[in-house]
């Protein structure tokens, strides 16, 4: 496996990539836990707000997306950046690689549910899409890589219903960040009950972010 490029070498690309996106003026980075720096959190929030269209009435479901709150933004293994990674440690144990994690929370509202008072499957898929792409993009924010892109494939499994009025927690972690296809796993939890899970892959389209804005 090729070694990741160091964050210091890639960091100059990040401001250019998101320079056209306006800041979220009332965002306080101390309200979000996690290992990302305050500046990284500010960038992550403005990218999220821009791509879910919180300021655009024509975007898909901004009234729902705007109610999701970030609880944590983590980047594990920052100390591994720039170090050569091996496919195996020689003992058959998996190699630990840098990992980005996003944790989001939302209370299930009536407008998110079907006629049975549980979250609609399409709404659950939307939330998982937001969370998984967020952790992939945040990986790039932490490393300086362009990890934006468009959906390639998303497999969703519905385990248990998320009921109206319940506060759910969506946890997403990167799985593979090599090459142009990046993959993350997302899980939606109601307490200790797993409601929905997914594997979501996006493909990087070179230059798309600069031209028209990628996907999130």
UniProtKB/TrEMBL annotation:
Q: Cite the CDD domains for this sequence.
A: PaaI_thioesterase
Keyword entries, A-Z: Hydrolase
Q: Which Pfam families match?
A: 4HBT
Q: Does the keyword tRNA processing apply?
A: no
SUPFAM superfamilies this protein is in?
A: Thioesterase/thiol ester dehydrase-isomerase
- The Thioesterase domain covers 116-192
Which molecular function term from Gene Ontology is one that the record holds?
A: fatty acyl-CoA hydrolase activity
Give the similarity note: Belongs to the thioesterase PaaI family.
The protein's name is Thioesterase domain-containing protein
Q: Give the species this sequence originates from.
A: Amanita thiersii Skay4041
Give the taxonomic lineage as stored in the record.
Eukaryota, Fungi, Dikarya, Basidiomycota, Agaricomycotina
